[in-house]
Target: Signal recognition particle protein
Amino acid sequence: MFESLSDRLGGVFDRLRGRGALTESDVRAAMREVRVALLEADVALPVARQFVDRATEAAIGQNVLRSVTPGQQVVKIVNDALVEMLGADESELEIGVTPPAVVMMVGLQGSGKTTTTAKIAKRLTSRDRKKVLMASLDVNRPAAQEQLATLGTQIEVATLPIVAGQQPVDIARRAMQAAKLQGFDVLMLDTAGRLHVDQALMDEMKAVADIATPNEILLVVDSLTGQDAVNVAQNFSDQVPLTGVVLTRMDGDARGGAALSMRAVTGKPIKFAGTGEKLDALEAFHPSRVAGRILG
Ligand code: GDP
Model:
């Protein structure tokens, strides 16, 4: 991921550095190229525009052009703008509450929601020593609940026993009760996904959120879907108070637009990146590292 964006930006910056002294029009020309590179990487248009406007202003407004290494300074400005666009700080989960903390996972079917639920449960169990209970509220897709139970067995994390025919809100209630009574620190609710955003799914999700009052509502989106991922995020965030985003398939050859636009469009931080099918393929999202990778 980010390879072609990184190559494009690398070319722009090499030319800037090679020039030595810089004029305002050199900077403007370079920023136009940055804008094209961002759009080619599938960054949402308003996000790319705002990014370039800000970076241009910073580069021209300060004493950058008169400095000894103007090219270098411009690269730094772009780096800082990238970090800001990605969301300046790495964000941990808000689970330091009176237990059980409730983490609700939402997203479209196939986005990697169930896998990510298990990945986060595994991380909380092994890294943070939390006692985690997972419950699947997906009564639409046959075997969704069994899928989570199987993952639970693999990672040695408890799952709520399946009661056939029970509806999502009732499963959520039962899960909350079980988590309280059995002293779990974190309850993870894996909600149903649909192929498209639809109102029935949204209503079901809102009903669950109302009774479970989650500490975190994490949206799982597939980074390979580019601009669509951003639209999906926008739709979900209009309906429930998301607290963060998990981008899956960051190991694939996505161009990066989803990662780069997500924060600006939803106002929510990317908290984790899924980097493979294995259950330990989950990384905390570090904007400065990602910016560093893009700028080489
Ligand atoms: P759900 O329908 O949203 O619950 O999706 P699943 O969790 O069942 O995942 C769908 C497929 O995507 C599975 O084959 C997962 O192994 C795969 N998957 C999930 N996350 C990632 C990821 O970060 N990278 C890769 N390469 N595959 C993933």
